[in-house]
């Protein structure tokens, strides 16, 4: 009997396993095995069919919201475009007013009214939910309208700037002509000065007018400072010049002008502008010196002279006049302290409007004094006493109202008069009537 070998058994088992695996693969390919997967796919198809109406509704909602958003954007675009049109029309209206253009004004006015009506219509459309059916086209048209309006606005602004530029150019030309005229006058004056090495008496009158203007400028600053410090201006004027009838309330400022002139011109008749005695010999020898002081200080600013020469005669003059003119009580009332006075005492003037106005006035008075002592003839100063009759030869009234009186009297001298050789400069006075006549 023949025995079975182990090798043959193993080979038969391998063949059987390979045949079984092959059969399984064949069933997968023919669709016999994945029955579960087919069932799963079948169920998914059923769910898709059931959910088809819901998907359609979602797409409709999205489309509706998109159209509403576009319509709202179109409405806003039209709103902003209309506002730009109103702005452009208003700019056109302003431009037509200067220079005056009736046709342009009417046209611009109609455009403004039309655009305002459009705004009202847009408001009603928004409240009634009446949106544009073609928002895409509306967006493009609104953008075009807004760009046109902006372009029109910029065009009008450009025309305005051109007009302003032409105006400024004409002002520059006018100022250049005035500047050239002043330069020519200065050159002519310099030629005369160089030829004669002295000043004409008419120059004294010119500089006197400049001096009086600077004095009134300082008085105006001082009165404004009084009002700011809650001072009673009329009581202060009464303290300086009591029992004076003023035709107008603002005439009280002449009392302050009188006080300032009294301090600033005190010692004017002396060569040193102080209480020191003078002699005719010193006057003759110092005539050229006064002229040199005038020509040296005239082009300079007062602060520059004080800074460069703190111990000069002019610096001492400014310091002395300020300390006499501005009382400590007045300064404390103006500024709340005495710091300015302390600085002036050591030769320093703070850069305030009050000190600047004072220095300008002091410079003018000093220059006038230099001119007066630059002449070969003698210059003198005079004023009129209270109660004197008015004389047109020696006096000039600062208030025209007083000239209507039959016999006006001098209340006080506002600005003193001057006599330079044969030239007489009238003093300025305030005329008033007595208390008995007023009663």
Automatic annotation (TrEMBL):
Name the InterPro entries on file. DUF641_pln (IPR006943), GIL1-like (IPR040225), GIL1_IRKI_C (IPR056813)
Q: Which Pfam families match?
A: DUF641, GIL1_IRKI_C
According to the entry, every stretch annotated as the DUF641 domain falls at 69-192
The segment(s) forming the GIL1/IRKI C-terminal domain are 381-430
Biological process GO annotation list?
Answer: negative gravitropism; response to red or far red light
Q: What is this protein called?
A: (rape) hypothetical protein
User: What organism is recorded for this protein?
Assistant: Brassica napus
């Amino acid at each position: 009997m023949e025995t079975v070998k182990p090798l043959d058994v193993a080979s038969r088992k391998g063949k059987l396993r390979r045949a079984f695996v092959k059969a399984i693969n064949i069933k997968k390919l023919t669709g016999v095995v994945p029955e579960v997967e087919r069932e799963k796919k079948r169920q998914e198809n059923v769910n898709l069919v059931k959910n088809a109406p819901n998907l359609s509704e979602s797409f409709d909602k999205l489309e509706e919201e998109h159209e509403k958003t576009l319509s709202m954007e179109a409405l806003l675009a039209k709103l902003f475009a209309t506002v730009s049109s109103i702005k452009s029309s208003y700019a056109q209206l302003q431009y037509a007013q200067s220079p005056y253009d009736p046709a342009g004004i009417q046209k611009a006015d109609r455009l403004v009214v039309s655009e305002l009506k459009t705004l009202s219509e847009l408001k009603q459309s928004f409240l009634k939910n009446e949106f544009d059916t073609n928002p895409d086209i509306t967006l493009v048209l609104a953008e075009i309208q807004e760009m046109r309006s902006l372009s029109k606005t910029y065009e009008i602004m450009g025309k305005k700037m051109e007009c302003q530029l032409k105006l400024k150019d004409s002002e520059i030309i006018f100022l250049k002509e005035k500047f050239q005229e002043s330069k020519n006058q200065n050159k002519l004056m310099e030629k005369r000065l160089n030829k004669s090495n002295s000043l004409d008496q008419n120059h004294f009158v010119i500089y006197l007018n400049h001096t009086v203007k600077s004095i009134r400028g300082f008085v105006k600053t001082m009165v404004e400072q009084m009002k700011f410090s809650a001072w009673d201006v009329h009581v202060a004027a009464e303290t300086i010049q009591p029992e004076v009838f003023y035709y107008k309330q603002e005439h009280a400022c002449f009392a302050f002008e009188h006080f300032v002139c009294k301090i600033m011109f005190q010692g004017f008749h002396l060569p040193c502008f102080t209480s020191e005695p003078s002699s005719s010999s010193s006057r003759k020898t110092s005539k050229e010196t006064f002229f040199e002081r005038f020509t040296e200080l005239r082009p300079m600013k007062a602060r520059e002279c004080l800074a460069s020469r703190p111990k000069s005669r002019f610096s001492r003059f400014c310091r002395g006049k300020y300390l006499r003119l501005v009382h400590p009580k007045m300064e404390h009332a103006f500024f709340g302290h005495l710091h300015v006075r302390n600085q002036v005492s050591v030769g320093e003037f703070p850069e305030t409007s009050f000190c600047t106005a004072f220095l300008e006035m002091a410079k003018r008075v000093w220059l006038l004094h230099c001119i007066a002592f630059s002449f070969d003839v003698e210059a003198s100063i005079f004023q009129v006493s209270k109660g004197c009759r008015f004389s047109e030869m020696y006096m000039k009234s600062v208030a025209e109202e007083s000239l209507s009186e039959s016999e006006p009297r001098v209340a006080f001298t506002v600005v003193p008069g001057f006599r330079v050789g044969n030239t007489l400069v009238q003093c300025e006075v305030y005329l008033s009537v007595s208390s008995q006549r007023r009663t």
